[in-house]
Amino acid sequence: MSIDLETAARVAKLARIRVEEEALPALAAEFNTILGFIEQLEEVDVEGVEPMTSVTPMALRRRDDVVTDGDQQDKILKTAPDAREGFFAVPKVVE
Q: CA quadruple 74, 79, 83, 87: dihedral positive or negative?
């Protein structure tokens, strides 16, 4: 499959990318290069190959989804310029 200038312009328009008329040949050539790579990949026999998410086998660590307050209220409030009764204190902005 080959991408001509008209198709390259249409793809650019669909992608909402402004491409000047003189840049269309280079864009079409890039599209053709990408399609060539895809054709090479289609030649690879992947029968029996399991899909993977990483090149190294990893098992994701899982934890229980438990709602907590983080138990760090005092530590967090130490950084506040003004804290009262366990909350951040801010200036009044509405009369």
A: negative
The b-or-e profile of 30-62 (16+ CB within 10 A means b, else e) is ebeeeeeeeeeeeeeeeeeeeeeeeeeeeeeee
Residues of the chain with pLDDT under 50: none
Cα–Cα distance for residue pair 63/52, rounded to 1 Å: 22
- Domain limits of the chain? 5-42
pLDDT tens figures, 46-65: 899 888 878 887 787 888 88
User: Model's pTM, two decimal places?
Assistant: 0.51
49 sits in the region (left: phi over 0; alpha: psi -120 to 50; else beta) called beta
Token pair, residue 49, equals 């190959």
pLDDT value of residue 7: 95
